[in-house]
UniProtKB/TrEMBL annotation:
Subcellular location: Membrane
Family the entry assigns: Belongs to the purine permeases (TC 2.A.7.14) family.
GO molecular function terms attached to this record: purine nucleobase transmembrane transporter activity; purine nucleoside transmembrane transporter activity
Bilayer topology: Multi-pass membrane protein
UniProt organism field: Coptis chinensis
Alphabetical list of InterPro entries matching this protein: EmrE-like, PUP_plant
Any Gene Ontology CC annotation: membrane
Main location: membrane
SUPFAM superfamilies: Multidrug resistance efflux transporter EmrE
Pfam annotation, one family: PUNUT
Transmembrane segments annotated in the record for this chain: 27-47, 59-79, 100-120, 132-156, 163-183, 195-216, 228-253, 273-294, 301-322, 334-352
Protein's UniProt keywords contain Transmembrane: yes
Keywords: Membrane, Transmembrane, Transmembrane helix, Transport
Protein name: Probable purine permease
Length: 365
């Protein structure tokens, strides 16, 4: 098909390739953010658990690490601003700042609220990893898909199917199985009470994450302005900054910034102590940024499904690197979680297939 068409005045008009270009760009951004989620979901929790396994004890520090790398988000906007200034040297600095700040008052307030949720979620997740092996923590975290489905229904009116209901039930059963079989995978030195505390804190973190993802989608839909990726980066920056401030206050109260002694006594050595916490910060920041980006490029439910999909990989790495026991209860819980994921994915596939096969609506002239 030719790229040009003739209008009623006889003039040539180009068709609209920008639509295809926008779709291609969104697909590239989706793949990029999916890659960030994959890297963060697999590396972040493993590194945080490595911190605890060899002498780390500061829960607020591990909470702070999950969002502390947010200054890295300044790199793309700064590069974009430098490019814009090169194109328009006449624009003043104040005008440039005003044009680059894209958040509306509603989105600004929503971002601060989501930042507080992210900070609390980081604390609950860090506390859970203190007392749980990574394999158990990852299975519990996978229940966020069930919470995401419920909150997507309540907040963004996501349609439920029998497959998504089945997914919620199966993942809930998987968490219940783990709750009643605690003795076989308790780390050394962790009491039953501490194990259950870690169990329910991790489950609470999954619930908060399941609430936050649809809330992000709702905030985008209520923004009353075009949602661009530059705007999404600003939301990500503000959410991470507020979460870091929240955890910084906790660290100051608990004197967790006094890490020199802990670093000297760390079993792997002082240098590796700082390397572990730095890499953990980068990994967890990639996870948060990737999640918010995936919601922008698709839906909150897809972000939840992606996290559930990564569960088997995280399990495998935990068994390989930390030699964690993978007992029958974990296997059953993992099977139920994967069954729930397949059920949800199959339901979404059928829904998309039906939408494609439906006859187009006729327009009344």
């Amino acid at each position: 098909m030719d790229e040009e068409a003739i209008d009623i005045t006889g003039k040539k008009q180009q068709q609209q390739p920008p639509i295809k270009k926008n779709k291609s760009m969104k697909l590239i951004l989706l793949l990029l953010n999916c890659s960030l989620v994959c890297f963060g979901q697999i590396s972040g929790p493993l590194l945080l658990r490595l911190y605890y396994m060899h002498g780390g004890k500061r829960i607020w520090l591990t909470s702070w690490l999950q969002t502390a790398a947010f200054p890295l988000l300044l790199i793309p906007p700064l590069l974009s601003r430098a490019r814009d200034r090169a194109h328009d040297q006449s624009q003043s600095t104040n005008q440039a700042i005003a044009s680059n700040f894209l958040l509306s008052p509603k989105l600004l307030i929503a971002s601060v609220f989501m930042g507080l949720i992210a900070g609390l979620d980081s604390y609950l997740f860090g506390l859970g990893l203190r007392y749980l092996p990574v394999s158990t923590s990852s299975i519990l975290t996978s229940t966020q898909l069930a919470f995401t489905a419920v909150f997507s229904l309540l907040l963004v009116k996501q349609k439920f199917t029998p497959f998504s209901v089945n997914s919620v039930v199966l993942m809930t059963l998987g968490a219940v199985i783990l709750a009643f079989h605690t003795n076989s995978d308790r780390p050394n030195g962790v009491s039953n009470g501490e194990y259950f505390l870690g169990f329910f804190m991790t489950l609470g973190a999954a619930a908060l994450l399941g609430f936050m993802l649809p809330l992000v989608e709702l905030s985008y839909s209520k923004a009353c302005k075009a949602i661009t990726y530059d705007l999404v980066l600003q939301v990500q920056f503000l959410v991470s900054m507020v979460a870091t401030i929240f955890c910084t206050i906790g660290m100051i109260i608990n004197k967790d910034f006094q890490m020199t002694r802990e670093a000297r006594e760390y079993e792997l050595g002082e240098g590796k102590y700082y390397m572990v916490i730095a890499l953990a910060a980068i990994g967890m920041q990639c996870l948060l940024v990737g999640n918010l980006g995936v919601v922008f490029c698709s839906t909150a439910l897809f972000s939840g499904v992606l996290l559930a999909l990564l569960l088997p990989l995280q399990q495998i790495f935990a068994v390989i690197f930390f030699h964690e026991r993978f007992n029958a209860e974990k296997g059953m819980s993992l099977a139920l979680s994967l069954w729930g994921f397949v059920s949800y994915f199959y339901g979404e596939y059928n829904l998309i297939k039906k939408q494609k096969q439906a006859p187009p609506m006729t327009q009344i002239p």
